[in-house]
Amino acid sequence: MKDNHSSLVVLSFTLLLGLLANNSPFVSAYDPSPLQDFCVAIDEPKNAVFVNGKFCKDPNLVVADDFSFSGLNTPRNTGNKVGSNVTLLNVDRIPGLNTLGISLARIDYAPNGGLNPPHTHPRATEILVVVEGTLYVGFVTSNPNRLISKVLYPGDVFVFPIGLIHFQMNIAKTNAVAFAGLSSQNPGVITIANALFGPKPPINPDVLTRAFQLDKNVVGYLQKQFGGS
């Protein structure tokens, strides 16, 4: 009788776990696990299989160049308005990344305020390591919004959780360089200022005026700056 009771308890607990799992509101947003060694992305659909938005190259035709990229050691031009340059190596640059759920970026920052402006990656968590310079970095939590920030030096690492607004700014008098790993083959990026003040067609100024509690002339000026009008 005791053994039967123990078995019934174990069975009930197992069923409870199953019900919780089936009714959980949690939804996974990560790239799916691959079911093959690799799926090198190609544009030509002939004799190919469509996986994760890309066609798979015939495995017998795969070469080392499908998995490599050269030149990430070369400094990038930061002579733009924000003073930064992001070199993203996603599935479009390294086709062998298809289905592997990872990508890499080099970020160059100009001295004295070079900024990777506030943005989000809708499909990836980012882990950043500083190679040169001194960066002020941070991200903002979901409501109620809280800023989590830190000053980083060469060799320091910082994590930006998936989907949260984050930024990096060079606060040194010299150039800065960082490398970032992202947990998606195609993480996507939404730059906040560009998305709000520069989309085409533009957002109605009345929406932005009320949302940001700004004068309509200020909103019009910002839309002109970002090409949204």
UniProtKB/TrEMBL annotation:
Binding locations of Mn(2+): 119, 121, 126, 166
Domain Cupin type-1: residue ranges: 70-220
A Pfam family per the record: Cupin_1
GO MF, one example: manganese ion binding
Record protein name field: Germin-like protein
Disulfide bond residue pairs: 39-56
Residues where oxalate binds: 116, 121, 126
Residues annotated as signal peptide: 1-29
Gene3D superfamilies: Jelly Rolls
General function of this protein: May play a role in plant defense. Probably has no oxalate oxidase activity even if the active site is conserved.
InterPro entries per UniProt: Cupin_1, Germin, Germin_Mn-BS, RmlC-like_jellyroll, RmlC_Cupin_sf
Source taxonomy: Eukaryota, Viridiplantae, Streptophyta, Embryophyta, Tracheophyta
Main localization of the protein described in the UniProt heading: secreted
UniProt xrefs under SUPFAM superfamilies: RmlC-like cupins
Similarity comment text for this entry: Belongs to the germin family.
Domain of life: Eukaryota
Record keywords, A-Z: Apoplast, Disulfide bond, Glycoprotein, Manganese, Metal-binding, Secreted, Signal
